[in-house]
Amino acid sequence: MILPYRILERKRAGMRLAEEEILEVVRGAADGSWSDAQLGAFLMASAIHGLDVEETRALTLGMLESGERWFLARDVPDLCDKHSTGGIGDKTSLVLPFLLAACGLPVSMLAGRGLGHSGGTMDKLEAIPGIDLNLDRARCLDLLGRCGVAFGGATGGIAPADRRLYALRDVTATVESLPLITASILSKKLAMGAAAVVFDVKAGNGAFMQDEESARELARMLVETARGLGTKVSALITDMSQPLGRWCGNAAEVREGLDCLEGRGPEDLMEVTYRLAEEVAALVGHPRKRADLEGAIASGRARERFDQWAVLQGASPAWVLAPKLDLAPVERPLLAGRSGVLSRIDTRQLGMLLIEAGTGRVRPDSEIDHGVSLLVEARLGDEVREGDELGRLFLRRDDIGLVERFKACFVVSDGEAQAPPLLLGRIG
Ligand code: URA
């Protein structure tokens, strides 16, 4: 055994860790022999000094091997998967699986909890009363056979080392690290073993990778490592300089996901969802045209898939008929303090404030509030007049200071401003 102290000392000094040292960290995370403090120290030292390609590969493979490997594509050869690197209001995971399943392509996904300032699909789905995201391989295959969609929370036998490190990164400010993100995402994706995976790598002030170049670097690292391990992959780099869609918050995002499946989705969210769906369908060798995807929504087939899936994973048939997803009761408008153009949204800060208001965790065991949410009514580049409503908050309790801080995230100035294009690039 290598003493944790020795490993931490070396990483603190910025030294490169040997494979067996990285594997010792992973072992300590998976079997509980390293304490939260020791793992937190490893994460902080790694976030500060970085991990090189060899260390990242060792961490990824170690985390992958820390739990079960399902090799699902052996049973479902056209199985698709999609993974986002995280952003605000990003709810494509609540739409894409049902859309593709309605077009004949099965999708399985491992949903994560909120991470750093970004929301997590698992937290969002748990706003549905009764939903059960515990999956094992047999249940996953059964769900895929019955409705074409399976959602697992990161709770089962897959990548237990990531589960622990992910929860610790969420509360130790060690999320924004390219190697840690790469190992975290790939260990789960590869352990599940879909035939094709599309990564949605977010770039912008609401993403972990704030500039396009580092997003591109992350996309390349994800694609090259996954491809090297035998999976069909590509990555789209998409804009996260403002929330995706109109709603942010757990229950509110499920509501907006349902709107999308019923043909009332906002344009930006639908566009990113369609692009990702087209990408992964082509990767798995069954390209789907935009008209096929739109038809699956317009005909109600995508929404039907959601209903089937929700009941199979624990929702009651009565809930599915009349979904009840309550918002928190204290409504506060966010009004423009001046006229001009909405030139910037501090998207990351919106995410942090939402967590402070209750949508995410302050400690690994914090309870989250599914009802707290934000409706974003203005988009970058919009002309606004003093007093216009830029957004609306739904809080559990009133807090004028918090409302003011939300308001300060929307910057109105003179002159012109334009939102960046939604799709910034593709690595494949
Ligand atoms: N998604 C993950 O699963 N892990 C990360 O680190 C970031 C996004």
Task: List its traits.
alpha/beta, 17 helices, 13 strands, 428 residues, binds uracil, 4-stranded mixed beta sheet
Description:
With 428 residues, the protein is an alpha/beta fold. The chain has helices spanning 4-12, 19-31, 36-49, 53-65, 96-102, 121-125, 137-147, 160-172, 178-192, 212-228, 250-261, 267-283, 290-298, 301-312, 317-321, 347-357, 400-407; strands at residues 80-84, 107-111, 149-153, 196-203, 232-239, 247-248, 330-335, 340-345, 373-376, 383-384, 389-395, 410-413, 423-427. Helix 5 packs across helix 12 (267-283) and helix 9 packs parallel to helix 10. It is globular, with a radius of gyration of 21 Å. The model has no long low-confidence stretch (mean pLDDT 95). The structure holds uracil. Uracil binds at residues 85-86, 112, 115, 181, 184-185.
Secondary structure topology:
Layout: H1 4-12, H2 19-31, H3 36-49, H4 53-65, E1 80-84, H5 96-102, E2 107-111, H6 121-125, H7 137-147, E3 149-153, H8 160-172, H9 178-192, E4 196-203, H10 212-228, E5 232-239, E6 247-248, H11 250-261, H12 267-283, H13 290-298, H14 301-312, H15 317-321, E7 330-335, E8 340-345, H16 347-357, E9 373-376, E10 383-384, E11 389-395, H17 400-407, E12 410-413, E13 423-427
Parallel strand pairs: 1-4, 2-3, 4-5
Antiparallel strand pairs: 5-13, 6-9, 7-11, 8-10, 8-12, 9-11
The chain binds uracil.
